[in-house]
Structures are given as structure tokens and as C-alpha cells.
Amino acid sequence: MTHSKESNLKFLSEAMARLTGSLDMQKSLIDTFEFLAGNFPIDAISLHQYAPDLKALKLLFLVQAGRFDFVEIVAPLSEEEANSLFLHNQGISGVIKVPRNMDSPVSALHSKSLSALVPYKERAYMICVLRSEKEVLGHLCLMGTHPDCFTEEHERKFALLVTPFALTMSNLLQYQRTMEFQERLRVERDGLEKDLENLRERRIIGEQGGLKSTMEVVRQLENREVPALIMGETGVGKELIADAIQSISPRKNKPFVKVNCGAIPDSLVDSELFGYEKGAFTGATTSRPGRFEQANGGTLFLDEIGELPLQAQVRLLRVLQNNVVERIGSTKSIEVDVRVIAATNRNLELMLQEGTFREDLYYRLYVFPIHVPPLRERTQDIPELIYLFMKRGCDELGISSLPQLPEPTVDRLLQYSWPGNVRELENLVKRGLTLYPYGPLLLDKLLPQDDGWYISPEESQSYFEKTIDERVEILLEKHLSKLHLSSGIIQSSQAGEYEHEIKPLEETIKEAILAALAKAGGRINGAGGAAELLDLNPNTLRSKMRKMGLRVSGR
Fold first, then answer.
1. Is the peptide bond before 309 cis (omega within 30 degrees of 0)?
2. Please, which residues bridge with residue 136 across strands?
3. I need a labelling partner for 514 at 20 to 30 A (CA). Which of 29, 64, 356, 551 fits?
């Protein structure tokens, strides 16, 4: 009897020395496993909890020879299994021995959930419930090497470890929570620092000018949390409008996370938005929260939403509907509370017709639309924008005074069509300051000299119509060969000869449309329709037909 007490004391003392031998909890548990593997026939040690709200097992960590993993797997339970574990947590203490894991539904589920890390096979389990003064910490499980491998002596030794393991697990769980909290704070801090840097000296030019009507719409969102969709061409300042919405939001002091969907490769969209677990793929050496988790409680700005691939749109819609995300490599559902502001420079309605943007996602986002006009429609703001960019550029380049900007240059800038909008103007000023640091700042000399890039005030209304007509003509010209027609400039195999007489382009386009309609039986939409034959959007074809005086069918 004395020998048995001495043996137990020595065993407990050595186990405690391993458990408390390092400030690094993971190293301590790896050392402890090595010691226990010399006393028990085990392949691994696991800690899991019962989550009554989810009716599931939450697997927290796994220790094997030389290895520690935070697994964070959620395994759903049946009603009967959940009830048995609830009773287990409430009243049972001591050691429970399961001779064969496959005979116990809960143990079998536990084994299957860890099959990626520990071979899924028949084995014995030995389990004890770890408790602190306040809560059940979890179930500590020794995973045996084979069925029926644990003896009564093993049970007695394992019972000695319940109290020291409970204390160690309490510290480990607190350590894990602290590390997760610190990681989230770090990510939020980095994001805030970046936002502050971007917002420094930034303000919206044109609030009382060309953007007055836009800002009036924005102000209607004050203290509201409805989703917003900002639409406008590239470079008009959609991100600034998102900043303005956030500044008057009830969540203005909460996280504001920005994502450029167009800058994420298709293969990385899921990991960027929803996060991933350690080991989920090659290179995933640590777990990382996605942008939705980072924005939890605050706002997520999805810029260039029209660039998301269809599969990513499906997963995004599911998150918006259910308010939960799942990291890559995990089955754990994480609840998120996020307000979404989206922006796009693409025509989402046209994308709906083409099948490249999901209709259900569109209506999820299109709750409060905001249109940001292009710079050519708000030319009154150009002088103030130039002054702002000149001042900012001079500070960056160390130029002591603003160079002169000749009046003819300003007049020419006001006529330019600005396809790149405000971003193009800012880059133009930077280039001008680099070339003419002491003036005069001849910015007009750096612009395209072809008059086709310039719009007089009386022409501005027809600018888009002219652009669309040009694109329609190019597309029709490109696809005339499908209908065995020609614009009249196709050379034959004999040099200097032509297959058809030269005709006016408008007449040739009209012939192409009539031929396509005849071949399609008068149909415009659908497979084999005239629009498909001409490789045009049906609405674009209808618009062209109206201008030519051709009858437009409703089909």
C-alpha cells in the first residue's frame, strides 16, 4: 500500500513538473504528452466542450507526439446525444472508460471529427470532466492506441490528474482567448491606422457644387444602418462617399473595414472575406479571421462588388442572409453583425441580363442606391480640385509655392471628357508638378490632343449616345462575317479586287440588323436571337433599331 502511494506521488509529481515546466503552454502540453505516453497506451490527448446553444461538440485542441493543434471544430449532435452530454456536464465527475469508441455515438463522432489529424479507427477512450469553480472547462480525453487498452490502474492514475489538468486547462483557455482578442485588436488597429492615413487632409470637394445632390442623398442615411450601393465610373470618389456614409452612421466609432473585390484573385476571395484555419491549405501556418469577422459590430465596404466571381457571390449572399461565416478549413459557424456598403463602376443591371451577377444578391445590396456623377458632369468642381491637388503635391515634392496655372489651361481642362475622372485629374497634377515645378503649370499639354477627347458644353448631353453608337458600330462591323455580310472593304484573294461594292457604314449596319432579325425569325432575345447573332446586348440592339426607325419587337 505504501509502495502504491509512493508510486502515485512520484507519478503525479512528474506529471505536474511537465505541466508547469514552461511558460509556453503548448510546449508544456507536448512535454506532458510524452510523459503520459510512457504510462498510458495513447495516440493523442484531446480537450472538447459541449455547447448547449449549438447542441454540438466543440473540439478545442489536440496534442500528439511533438505536436499541438488548436483545432476549433464544431461537431453537431443528435438530440439524444446532446441530452446525455448535458447530464454528463451537470452531474458526473471522475473517470469514464469507453472500451470501443465505435460503440459510443459521441466518441465515434469525436474520432471522425479528428480524422484529418489522428487515424480514424477503433480505439478505447478514457475521459474525465474538468471543472473550475465557475464552469465546466471541458472533457479531457485520452485516445487509446487500440480497443480495450486501458486498465483499472490506468483509471486510477488518470484520476490523479483531474485537478492539475483542470487548473492548466483553465489557464490555457484563457491564454487562447487572450491571443484571439489580441490578434483581432492588431488587425483592427492596422486597419484604423491605414484609414487614418488615407483620410488625412481628405475632404469631399463639390459638396455645395457638382456633388450637392449626391450629398443630399447621403445625408438621408444619417443614423441609419441600411445597406447602401454606391454607383459611378472609375475614379469618381466612391470610397470618399463611403467614408461620408460611415461618418454619420450609428457605427461610426466601430470597425470600418475596406475590401477591393477587384484586387483579390478568384482563388483567394473566400480566405480574404471569410478567413481560414491553421492548416486549411498550404501556407496557412496560423488561423486568420476574414474581413467579415474584422468588421463585426461595424461596417464592411466592398468596393468593385461587380468584380466578384459568381461562386463568391453565392457565398456572400449566404452571409448577408444568415449573418454567419465559416472559415476555410472549419465547420464552426461564427455569427457576425456587419453593415455592408458596396460600390461598383459596372452596370449591374446589364450584368443581371448577361447572367454575370446574381439577381438575389443585387436586391440585397440595392437597398439605398447612390449615384456619383462623373467629373465631366461636374466641371464646376475642377478648379477647386486642381488647387487641392496642387497644394498636396507641392507639400509632397517640397515645392515652396504653388506654380502659376494659366487661364487657357483651365479652360481646356474644363472641356476635357475625363474618362478617369478625379483620379485622372489628381495624377495629371502630380505629373505636371514633376515636369513644371516652378510653373507655369501647362497641364493641357499633358492631355490627349485629339479633339475627340473634348466636349463642348452644348455637346455634353449627347456624349454618351455618341460613345454608345461608336461601340455598336465596332461590334457590328466585327460580327458581320457571321451573317455573310461585309462593310464593303473586304479584299478578295486577288490583290486590288473587292468582293462587294463600298456602301455607307450606316446602311451596312442596317442590313446586318435586318439580316439577323430575318435569320432569328424576328426574335431579339434568347438563344439564336438577333442580339446573340450580332453579339450585342438586347437593349443596345433595340436602342440602335429605334434610332434607325426599325420596328422593335417586344421579344
1. no
2. 131
3. 356
